[in-house]
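Molecular record:
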Amino acid sequence: MDIEIIESTLADFLSGQARLLFIEGASGCGKSDLIDFLAKRAVAEGAALLHGVGSPGEADVPSGVLRQLLADAPTPRLAQVPQATDGRPRAEAMREFCAAIQELSQNVPVVCCVDDLQYADAVSLQYLQALIRHARTGPVLLVAARSLHFSSQDPTFDTELLRRPDFRRIRLGRLSEAAVAEAVAGYPRIAAIPGSAAALHDISGGNPLLLRALLEETRATTPPATTTEELEPERGGLFSQAVLTCVLRSGPAAFDLGVALALLQDRGSPEQAALLLGIPVSAVEQADTALRAAGILDGHRFRHPGSAAAVLDALEPAKRARLHRRCARLAYQAQEPAAKVIQHLRASVHAHEPWPDTLWAVDVLRERAEQLMVTDDPRQAADLLHLAYDACTDEGTRAEIKTRLSSITWRFDPAAAEKHLAEPLRLARAGQLSKGRLTALVRSLSAQGRIAETDEVLRRMNPPGPDSGTAHDPYPNLPHAAFWAVRDRGMSDLADCERFLQDAVLTETTLLPIVQALQTLILSEHPERATPWCQTFADDAACRNAPAWTAVFATLHGDVLLRLGDLRGAERQALRAWEALPGRNGTVFVAAPAALLIRARTAMGQHATVARLLDLPIANSRDDSVYLSSYLYARGVHYVATNQYASALRDFLEVGRLLRSWGLDRPVALPWRTEAADALVRLGEPEQAEQLVAEQLSLPDARHPRVRGISLRLRAAIRPPEQRQALLKEAIDELRLSGDRVELARALADLGQHLQAVGETNRASMLTRRAWNLAHACGAKTLREVILPGLAAQLNPCYPTVPRQRRGAEESDAKLSESERRVAALAAHGYTNREISSKLYITVSTVEQHLTHVYRKLSISRRQDLPVDLPLGSMESA
């Protein structure tokens, strides 16, 4: 139909008749192509062409389009027509313009084409109106193309068109699916994809420009598309550029409307868009009609998400931030779900865009963050609190947000969590925080082990007075600040701890009580009771993607195993904590698994690997972390093992100073006095060592079997030889009760050495064997080498010169019965016949008979020749 109108119009024009053709259509629907086609046809038939194109940038430039038309004038007279540069054309000049065209048409048909008439300036429109009125005879063809739904610069222009009886109008529409299929046929590879025409029609809306861009973009795809899913346009590609062009050429409000609808998404409507943009609804409705006519919108939503992205990508970031914030405010006022409000607040972040009037936004973000914590999503909650902090202008509230952010962030990034407290601490020291905010700050500082800073804030909350209490109780007013203090519990209290752990669910609020309960079990006389709970909570934390929590429970688990003498297990847990801990180079908590790893590997003789852990930044930090004391203690243990006694002594004394200053000096946790005493003995200062041991034995913790056993073993090393045996026997009894097999092995070795010195060689040999086997079972290579240097190498099967009597359990087991093997193993580990009788519930005579058979079968003649590495199996090792 459109081609028929063009053909008839051209025919009439070329036959000498004046004609007026007006082409309308949505942006991208082929107006320019059609006007170019007509112009070429006319020129081919010998017509003179005057051509002009309106543009948004020249819409306010007087005579802009007119100058283009006159520039193509083939006659001097037309080219010399006066133009109105002041915006007020004279009637004489317009009449002269019409007369010049009429004169030209007497010699040659004249076709005057104006594309994008919607952007023509007012002066040019008046000249064109004059031509419409006066060029009614002769071969003059005026062709104008304009996008739909534009308000004309001159509202009388359309009326003037209607006055011409020869006026013809063509309205271009979008392509049907069949027409799209016809266009796709020109792209064989795309046409071969089943359903390609329908898919491309859905994406482009039948807009010819968008379709062409999509086809060209797809044709250039490598490898070529083979499914309809691969026909999706790429962001920023030809299709996106074509969409943006169509939007920009669809009216002055079209781009802003596109942005608004892209931001509002399913809430988009002309009314909401007008409210967001702050413009009249009528302007929005006009733009909405234009975009729907172009096929870009389907209803009030973008037909394809790529179109919405193209519009948003063209928006200035600062303006996008402002609009997102206005969207958020509108959603908040309309009581939309918080998720929708926050979606816009997240997208509104811009470095150089301030947050005006955002108290409501801060409240929404903080409330939503707490909801996310209930559903166990700390990372998202932390993101929202970061946003709330940026949006907040009140210093006190910002400090409160930072404190809460620290508490949440510690779960997955302790280093960041520690940094978050810098601002609240600054304000606390300046006296600018309320007591409630100080309480939250104390809680966070204490949970991070920052004892000195916790105490500082507490003193600001409760300044000490003349009757404020004694120094040994530094936290009388806020019990949770004494989180790291050791709690003395009886057996019934331990059962209460286990019942609590049985029912506890690991959350942010239960973390500290759970850790406190575990510490109570670990520091009790039955640390083994904490082992399954540590494992359970570490696994739970790992499943919930809380790496810092995993590190906490793995470290506690390792501490239990270290106290029980399981060095390999302690190392495994220390490594688990070390590897789970994110950002470990920036957090003081790294000292906890590091200390555990240092002590375990030092006892295992892995001194080279320990050296890399001795210079962590925390070692040079201020006295603000409880982890510093554990780290210095562990480093001192390593220094003793590597004969650096003066350095060890310095570290142990510093541990004591820190713990006393914090009011946390409890030997059951860190027996620094006996370690310092050991270093003093090695430095030749037994009197000072005796003072430290006596001080430790005078403390209430000396009732604890481990503390008492360690203390008595050190006292035996200092006292005269005639006192040592009784002290060591008592130490051994206490250490058996404590479950610490490494310390027990050390005490057994000391007693064996003493008995050897006084001539009781048989008993000495048995105790030494027992100590060596116990150290060997624990993996305590360093202690094992002290007890019997070189014996481990003799037991290694790679040595070809192993003595026959020490080739180990494999050869022995092949010759011995089960009963004989059990008796031989206990005898080899240093147990007396009476002790073996008691352990195996057999008579002493039966023990002697079994040993006689063992000696004969192994071709040995005495107890000392039994293989030292006969395994004890499931029997007690001590």
Summary: The radius of gyration is 45 Å. Residues 645-662 form the longest helix (18 residues). The longest strand covers residues 140-147. Confidence is low (pLDDT under 50) at residues 468-481, 796-809, 874-878.
